[in-house]
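step 4 of 6: structure.
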Amino acid sequence: PVSRLRRFGPTVFAEMSALAQRTGAVNLGQGFPDADGPATLLDDAVAAIRSGHNQYPPGVGVPALLDAVAEHQRRFYGLDLDPGSQVLVTAGATEAVAAGVLALCEAGDEVVVLEPAYDSYPAVIALAGAVQRSVPLLPGPDGFALDRQALRAAFSERTRLVLLNTPHNPTGTVLGADDLAAVAALAVEFDAVVVTDEVYEHLVFDGRAHTPVATLPGMAERTLTVSSAGKTFSVTGWKVGWVSGPAPLVAAVRTVKQFLTYVNAGPFQPAVASALALPDEFYTGLAADLQRRRDLLVEGLRAAGFAVAVPAGTYFAVADPRPLGFADGTDLCRRLPELAGVVGVPVSAFCDPGSAAAQACAPLVRFTFCKSDAVLHSAVERLQVLQ
Ligand code: PMP
Ligand code: GLN
């Protein structure tokens, strides 16, 4: 590839899933559910294919999905969006984030990013010729904490974007009201746009509520909110995402999207539109079910000797293997299939080599709990051999 991308190899998810396949290990690495989403959703997609929704959909997305996204943002967050101008359907959240960064950053513009960061962020910032300014989320006994001093220090007059992610992959952190307010205040002070990746919006636990950045005072006019059907409806392979926000910003993203993929997911879009209108019980059931599996994994990892903080959201738990005598998470992840027949992902793969976050996260391993009880039981049983 071009020099801007040369430091990016194959993604850690592909590497670890291949390792799991090769070794027959239980794959708690790549985050994808092992059960498909609601039957009505699957039936609706089949019906859409059978009834001729197989040609290019409209460039912004099918009207039913634009309406459904706007209605979802109103129903859950009280946000008021015009579906005709303030919503855009994308090829997953990945394209929404990429098109957002490419649409809004000139070469040399700075993008403030939480680190560890989802792996597509640094790559797309590099592709835009922009400069990443990282703010470490540092691990502690009760989970990860945002370094507020580093947050302020990351902003400058060159800041164009804040690329936020809450609930946060890979740490499972749900940013608290204080952190969100601090980000919002700095975005206003430095006149930055916030692109916020909220794909895990419905995967929050213990009675917490997800707070979109766009709901904070003064933020709706400078925030692009990104989400995806992949996580909420357990259909990660469909790649139906969306972005919403102020019409001029959404229009800018649309300009990029139309030349990246033009349109996507014709027959899946009406199906996702119907699913977004599922009753509250679907959403609360999803979180409750995942919370139970979170607890199963966290307890199993602790019984196996790992130190684990309970994640507040997402479907990932971060385990510290130092009590078991392992200091290097990358090395442990390479050896784990052979040692225990399990695959995880090193948290340092989400960090810039040599950064403060990379150092703090060096020992840590991310395991996913979006798997069946049987798979989770099998994994934690296998991990007992490490003691
Ligand atoms: N953002 C985050 C934080 C993610 O964890 C993921 C998926 N694992 C994505 C984006 C990608 O979403 P999609 O598949 O909809 O592109
Ligand atoms: N988002 C999922 C994860 O973090 C997988 C994404 C991918 O494979 N690119 O594991």
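step 5 of 6: annotate
 - The chain has two domains: 3-36+281-386, 39-276.
 - The longest strand covers residues 131-140.
step 6 of 6: archive
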